[in-house]
Amino acid sequence: MAAVIETRELRKNYGTSEAVRGLNVSVSVGSVCAFLGQNGAGKSSTLRMLLGMTRPTSGAGYIFGLKIDEEQESLRIRQRAAFVAEDKRLYDYMTVAQMVRFVRSFFPSWRKDLERCLIERFALPLDHKIRNLSKGMRTKLALLLGFARGCELLILDEPTEGLDPAAIEDVLAILVSLVAEGTTVFFSSHQISEVEQIADHVLMIDSGRLVLDAPMDRLKERYRQIQAVFPDLVDEGDFRIPGIEKVRAEGHTVALVASENIGAIVEHVRMMQARSVDVLPLSLKEIFLAKIETGQ
Amino acid sequence: MLFYKGWLETRVRFILCSIVLFVLGAYSVVQRLDNLRYARRYVSYSNYIYWETYSSITCVVFVLCTLLLGLGGFLRERERGTIAVSLTIPVTRRRLVLTRAAVGLAETVLLACIPALTICMLSPLVRESYPTAQAIKFGILWVFAGMLYYSASFLGSTLLPGEYTAAAASVLGFFVYSFLFGRMPALRPFNVNGIMSAHEAPFLDKGTHLLIGPLPWAPLLIVASVAAALLAVAVFVSERQDY
User: Would an 8 Å CB–CB cutoff place B117 in contact with chain A?
Assistant: First the structure.
């Protein structure tokens, strides 16, 4: 499938600190791609580079095949891609109606139907100054301004932060409907349950490096937790086998996180005289924690 | 819509500055009644207006207003967290910066006209009249000087991060500049405050304190060119900065 977003050895340094270290990612057309990582992992720096807010130190990035660090090409990217930033801050001297009118004026494909629908659904007070809105209302307005642009690509940084559970469900449902209409969504989130609910592809970044790039279904298929109980004490060093991502030994019990080679690992564990061996599926949260700990 | 945003962003500052300049202009005129007993200090009403408005605290307040209008820009938006909104709309940074500059310069022009208009309109209340042509001429001098100060403040807020750093630097810069260029004979020809008040200028009649002859267009064009250069630097920096 064609890539909407593509980066090649993308790097960003701030002084001596390396925020993004040689990132190679590809996001397919029509996908819902989650971009996961701890705070400070380099997610926001990557998003800012993609949108031309900061320039890469080296490497290359493309959206719709257009270079992210060329002013005119970046302009064309921004005509076709919407961004909702993490902190959802908007011009506090404007009213909700003024803010909507301001953003709408730059997007010929603005979806008035969606604008009206979301104003009603989110109960946004049009005549209120933005500075007087609660964080949740500001988030809803920021999302409206992103969704209604009618763009082919939505880049969202923590889209549901500050929303109540009902609003989160609303937003996820809207996202799913936009994807059904052909929009590609690239979003970062710390809410793993939401990611599991809507993402079909997962990218994980740690200390500026990509540590995982896989479709969601393959990820869940591939990753397993293997729990074994041994008659004697065991050492973590006994489990240096390809495919094992993480080992945690506590007394007679060992918990392994494996991403491949499951059969061989189970066989190895049995040969070590394990009293019992259980192979369990892993949630995305557990995979995330395993990858992050491995990275560290 | 960018002009509209620029207006909404600065309108509170602009309206406050307009009120302050109007009050100062009006006060100069109305104070004339109280100043009758000091009439011997002033040879004429135009002389009185010159010392009370065009070469007084009103001048300083006008400059401070232009410095205040120049504040803002991408660094301030970054501090306030709104930079992502501005930089992700499909508009070049150059257009964003120039639109903001155009709105600020238009407001500066209007501010420069307020004392002149106030004096012309209110003088009949104290049974005096001030020549409109003179008011326009002083207005033009203030427009050019205001453009320079506005552009300096604009550049300052492009270079200096922090909510109040650019404001403090602009005000401090103004007072240091005024002190150095007002006191040192070698620098006096480059003193914009001197152009603004026409103080010691050959085109100011020392008796009536009315402007005589044509305005000093060459120095005014130099002032405008310096202002344009400062704005060009601000655009250049804004286009290359990371936000």
Answer: no
Contacts of B242 in chain A (CB under 8 A): 48, 53-55
What would the two tokens of residue B189 be? 């020809």
The alpha-carbon gap from B125 to the nearest alpha carbon of chain A, in Å, equals: 38
Tens digit of each residue's pLDDT (9 = 90 or more) over A220-255: 888 999 999 998 888 878 788 888 888 888 888 999
- How is residue A229 written in tokens? 């109980």
- Structure pTM? 0.87
How many structural domains comprise chain B?
Answer: 1
How far is CA B116 from each of CA B29, B66, B128, rounded to the nearest angstrom? 11, 16, 14
What is the rounded CA–CA span in Å between residue B3 and residue B101? 10
Q: How far apart are the first and last CA of chain A?
A: 33
Confidence of residue B39 (pLDDT cuts 50, 70, 90): low
Tokens 């369990």 belong to: A280
Q: Which domains does chain A have, with CATH numbers?
A: 3-215 (3.40.50.300), 223-295 (3.30.70)
ipTM of model: 0.84
Residues in B touching A55 (Cβ below 8 Å)? 242
What range does the domain containing B181 cover?
A: 2-240
Contact A91 B82 (CB under 8 A): yes
Picking from A13, A66, A102 by the largest number of B CB atoms within 10 A of its own CB, the best residue to mutate is: A102
Smallest Cβ–Cβ distance between A53 and the set B12, B84, B91 belongs to B84
What is the chain A residue with the closest CA to B77? A91
